[in-house]
Write a structure and sequence with these properties.
An 8-stranded mixed sheet has the order 1-2-4-3-5-6-7-8, with helices on both faces. The radius of gyration is 16 Å and the shape is globular. It starts with a strand and ends with a helix. Strand 3, helix 1 and strand 4 (58-62) form a beta-alpha-beta unit. The mean pLDDT is 97. It contains 6 helices and 8 strands, in the order E-E-E-H-E-H-H-E-H-E-E-H-E-H. With 238 residues, the protein is of the alpha/beta class. The chain has a single domain, classed as Alpha/Beta hydrolase fold, catalytic domain (Rossmann fold).
Length: 238
């Protein structure tokens, strides 16, 4: 694992890059951008890029906040992600910078997918909505599904997988239904799985319900959604 600096215009971003074992996975490999939660580029997404590299992917934990900023408290985190949610052009550009940087890395064969957690789920869905030509597929884990910039018909070229906690109070059924309608109207290739028993942050072992009762790990859904992601990426990359 190593620091990986790239830029979105004048903003420095400091991601974390994990490469697969060349003895097991020789030659250039597909790349996966992984986007962090509202709390910044922390242990959760760094753990995931290691897991992605073990699957044979060149994995970059993107730094959406810039300079690897970690919010001081929940109010600051919610302010930052709220600003990005309201400015989808800025969010898409920031995420797109990570995609471009990974695609240019010599270990990457030019094929890119993106996965994201919580705020990161919102982020990768915005890449799909934007029709980013470098992104072949995206996976959202307990991500926000609402947007101020809905996809237009034919615009979503990436294959989409949404892994959603059916009991997530932060992403209510109204948002889920609106998202399904949006994807249908856009004629997107989208799979959406709603896991009963799962709430928000179901992939994060550090989520113990202390901040909010609905922010809590759910081990069975964590494992099942990771398997679903593996099948999706295998399809995306052929």
């Amino acid at each position: 694992m190593s620091d990986f600096e790239y830029h979105d215009g004048g903003q420095r971003c400091l991601g974390v890059l994990e490469l697969p074992d060349p003895a097991k996975f020789p030659g250039p490999r597909p790349g996966v951008v992984a986007v962090h939660e509202a709390w910044g580029l922390g242990a959760q997404v760094q753990r995931r890029v290691k897991m992605l590299a073990e699957l044979g992917y060149v994995a970059l934990a993107a730094d959406i906040f810039g300079d690897r900023h970690i919010p001081a408290d929940p109010p600051e985190a919610f302010r930052i992600i709220g600003d990005f949610a309201a400015n989808t052009a800025a969010l898409r550009a920031r995420a797109g910078a990570a995609v471009s940087a990974l695609k240019a890395h010599p270990a990457c064969d030019g094929r890119i997918a993106a996965i994201g957690y919580c705020f990161g789920g919102r982020t990768v869905l915005e890449l799909a909505r934007a029709g980013n030509p470098d992104v072949l597929g995206v996976v959202s884990f307990h991500g926000a599904l609402d947007t101020v910039s809905p996809a237009q018909k034919g615009q979503v070229t990436a294959k989409v997988l949404v892994c959603h906690g059916a009991e997530d109070e932060l992403v209510p059924h109204t948002h889920l239904n609106a998202f399904l309608d949006e994807m249908a109207a856009a004629e997107a290739d989208c799979q959406t799985i709603a896991y009963t028993g799962a709430k928000h942050s179901f992939t994060n072992p550090e989520a113990k319900g202390e901040l909010m009762p609905t922010i809590i790990h759910h081990a069975a859904t964590d494992e099942r959604s990771w398997r679903a992601m593996q099948a999706h990426l295998a399809e995306v990359f052929g």
